[in-house]
Amino acid sequence: MIVLWRVTERCNYACGFCAHDRRLGGARHETAADEALRFGRLLCDWGRARGEPILLSWLGGEPLLWRPALPVSRLLSASAGIRISATTNGSTLHRPAVRDAVLDAFAELTISVDAFAPGHDRLRGMNGAWHRARAGIMALANDRRARGARLKLRANVVLMRATLPDFPDLCETLGDWGVNEITFNQLGGRDRPEFFPDQRLRPEDVAALAACVPRLRARLAGRGILLCGDTRYLDRFRASAAGEAIAVAQCPLGASFLFVDTQGLIAPCSFSTADYGIPIASLRTPADFETLPARFAAAHAAARCAACGDCPSTQIFAKFAA
Questions:
Q1: CB < 8 Å & 24+ apart, contacts of 286-289
Q2: What is the CATH classification number for the domain harbouring 309?
Q3: pLDDT tens across 78-88, in order?
Q4: Mean pLDDT, the chain, whole residue set
Q5: Helix 96-105 × helix 129-147 angle, to 10°
Q6: Which terminus in the chain has less CB density within 10 A, N or C?
Q7: Is 61 left (phi over 0), alpha (psi -120 to 50) or beta?
Q8: What is the CA radius of gyration of the chain?
Q9: What is the pLDDT of residue 210?
């Protein structure tokens, strides 16, 4: 079971394509530490009862700005047996205490790197973001080697029209920094529709990507680096670029993947919390947790979430396959 949990809406960067851009107004919600611990331990109890491993992954905003992130991760990984992950902009990895905590408690860490400098800095709205990410990743890779730790270091790249030509060289550079695995997303338009038209991938862009991926994957594999995303994933890119909807008729609602938002709603994905979300506060026992797939299926049958008509959930389309 993979559980993604958006624990904070705060961020220190100003990405023009992200809803958590620090320049945007509105309330910035966060998850309470005690609720994170309670629900994390419930996940562990359910996993033990089912004999199923749990990967709990913190999202933001910038999740490493969430003050409980490191102590809660340590407690859950040590006492509850949950594998911990997070997706970060890398802005705190220069701190030895952060790197130590990540190596102590985390099974995986994903760092978002979208382009070479100065393009990355411009996209992230932060001068020095590229060099900060580079230094942090390399320091963490060195610390991992020195400690003999088994942390998986992953980089995730958001592909857009301006950055796509540099993607192969960027992957090679990320490998030089010590990254084990690389994933990529196409730019989406839901969070910041004003940014999307000028940078969305066109059919010819996706065709160029699909042509280069097999060679790039083989080259990286020769260096021990995994490039994820198989043909099903590229088919999702092609459909998006062509304006074709892909509905998922048999979505495994809550069977192996769940999303929790900062309001404490759990749903089959981040796009369905408004339609199918259930308060995690109402889940007190493993038996309660066991009811989730049936409850999601009932909600889906009663009134299908609009996003299901053109599913944007990357895990459905094998983002992490190779």
A1: 286/42, 286/45, 286/46, 286/49, 289/42, 289/43, 289/46
A2: 3.20.20.70
A3: 877 799 999 99
A4: 95
A5: 50
A6: C
A7: left
A8: 19
A9: 97
Give the pLDDT of residue 100.
97
Is 88 inside a domain boundary?
A: yes
Q: How many domains does the chain have?
A: 1
Whether 240 maps to a domain, the answer reads yes
Matching residue, tokens 């393009």: 119
Percent of the chain with pLDDT over 70: 100
In a domain, residue 44? The reply is yes
Is 100 inside a domain boundary? Answer: yes
Q: Is 29 exposed, middle or buried (0-12, 13-18, 19+ CB in 10 A)?
A: middle
- Return the residue matching tokens 């382009």: 115
In the prediction, which pLDDT does 207 show? 98
> Which ranges in 78-202 belong to alpha helices (H)?
96-105, 119-124, 129-147, 167-177, 196-199
- Helices (H) and strands (E) in the chain — how many of each? 12, 10
Sheet holding 257-260, edge to edge: 226-227, 181-186, 152-159, 108-112, 83-88, 55-59, 2-6, 257-260, 265-267, 278-279
- 166 exposed, middle or buried (CB, 10 Å; 0-12, 13-18, 19+)? middle
Q: Write the pLDDT tens digit of every residue in 63-112.
A: 999 999 999 999 999 877 799 999 999 999 999 999 999 999 999 999 99
pLDDT of residue 69: 98
